[in-house]
Amino acid sequence: MARGEVLKTISFHRPIYPPSKWMPLEVEDLKFNVDGAVSGSFGLAAELLAIKEAGILFKSLKWARSHRLLVECDSNNIVHWIKNAHLSPASFRGIINSILDTFEGLVWQVFLISREQNSLADNLAKKGISITRGIVEFLLD
Known about the structure:
alpha/beta, 3 strands, 12% strand, RNase H type-1 domain-containing protein, RNaseH_sf, RNaseH_domain, RNaseH-like_sf
């Protein structure tokens, strides 16, 4: 390392998963379970974009002002970065700030879930890679 060069590190936090038991939502809650899948190595970016899209969709619903949004994600780093945007890597800070702007004024929370609990969202995300038309159109077929 050259003199005066700063060593940059990204800290990874050990995930603490909630119990695996399914719990029904409260009447005033809506939940999005997100997972990003892409061809290549942009998984974290895809998952962040999925969270932003969930926020855009939620904001367009009539329940956005009367309900709380719960976002479930299986990436410990993403959950940590959204809750602590100032600690996120510079390469993701723009999209994270954009997510926070999207959710401005809404009641929402992001939760970490295990990959096993997120398997359905993961499978749907992987299927979505091969879809050449809109996902909503695909799900309505």
